[in-house]
Design brief:
Distance between the termini: 73 Å
Order of helices and strands: EHHEHHHHEHHHHH
Helix content: over 70%
Number of strands: 3
Structural class: mainly alpha
Radius of gyration: 22 Å
Number of helices: 11
């Protein structure tokens, strides 16, 4: 490799979603629409949980945390698409790029932890209903949320340190629409063995541990549901956790599919599709799933809407 290509750079060039000019406007409008739906939906969930006393329960406390993560994650990644389209400037500073890597990866880890905490909440609600309010106290919920948020940001500090120590690159173009660990690793000519080992040990182990805890919670939940004698009781018990199961399935499927595409070395187009699903579509689907499948959320939304209508008519 020539020394000319091995350069230390002060910024990176993001390739973007597509190089086809005819698709630029369509993709921009599509991503913008998805982002706005996601933003409105998740903000609605947060406001409803804050304003409606009936939603001041552990499940909706964790749901509001999930909505905050979804808003932060989609905003962190998708804003690059908007900036590139509006300004035609693909460049991003090294500091901004490293910050984006750290924030996005931390939020992903946070979401995994929150989903695991929500699965534990569903386990207690279904398997130990008489002790639910005693076990899922405000103190425990606050502790689980604090650990979920704190652990993600602490876990990604070594990753940020390893990446920031890269001293040379074979290219300054990142084959993606935002800064992520693997695309940056692919263009560096520095030694990546320490980073790869850390991702293998801590990154993958963290994912599998949280997935294992989530699965085990549902193993006990399913076993408990099967012991319910009436069909109506089984349907009601399953209904209380159906939204969470759907969200967990969507989130983990997007991560697994993106990982398989990356490892298999398929084209960047496939990787971008799964990245867009993970950063744009999944955050949009989460509030829709909980609002459409949850009677409490729909009831709270109707009440707040009627209140707004009455206030409007009164004024």
């Amino acid at each position: 490799m020539s020394s000319i290509n091995q350069t230390t750079i002060e910024g990176f060039r993001l390739k973007g979603v597509s190089d086809v000019p005819e698709l630029q406007v369509f993709l921009f409008l599509l991503v913008l629409l998805i982002y706005l739906i996601s933003l409105i939906g998740n903000l609605t969930i947060i406001l409803l949980v804050c304003l409606d006393l009936h939603l001041h329960t552990p499940m909706y406390f964790f749901l509001s945390n999930l909505s905050m993560i979804d808003i932060s994650s989609s905003t962190t990644t998708l804003h690059n698409i908007f900036v590139i389209f509006i300004t035609q400037d693909h460049m991003v500073s090294t500091l901004a790029c490293m910050s984006q890597v750290y924030i996005f990866c931390s939020l992903t880890s946070n979401e995994l932890s929150i989903l695991a905490a929500m699965s534990f909440d569903r386990y207690v609600a279904i398997c130990r209903p008489l002790h639910y309010h005693t076990v899922m106290s405000r103190r425990l919920c606050g502790l689980l949320a604090s650990i979920s948020w704190g652990f993600g940001f602490i876990e990604m500090v070594p990753t940020l340190v390893f990446i920031s120590r890269f001293t040379c690159y074979i290219s300054k173009e990142i084959d993606h629409y935002f800064c992520d660990v693997l695309p940056i690793r692919d263009i560096t000519c520095s030694d990546t063995s320490t980073l790869d080992l850390y991702i293998l040990i801590f990154g993958n182990v963290n994912i599998f541990i949280l997935l294992f805890l989530t699965i085990m919670s549902y193993v006990f939940i399913i076993a408990c549901i099967l012991r319910i004698s009436s069909n109506a009781g089984r349907r009601k018990a399953f209904y209380t956790c159906s939204s969470h199961i759907t969200v967990v399935g969507i989130f983990y499927s997007s991560i697994v599919l993106q990982y398989i595409v990356t490892v298999s070395g398929k084209n960047i187009g496939s990787n971008l599709i799964f990245s867009l699903f993970n950063t744009a579509i999944a955050p949009m689907l989460n509030p829709l799933i909980y609002s459409l499948k949850n009677k409490d959320v729909k009831s709270a939304l109707r009440q707040k809407w009627k209140f707004c209508e009455r206030t409007k008519n009164f004024t």
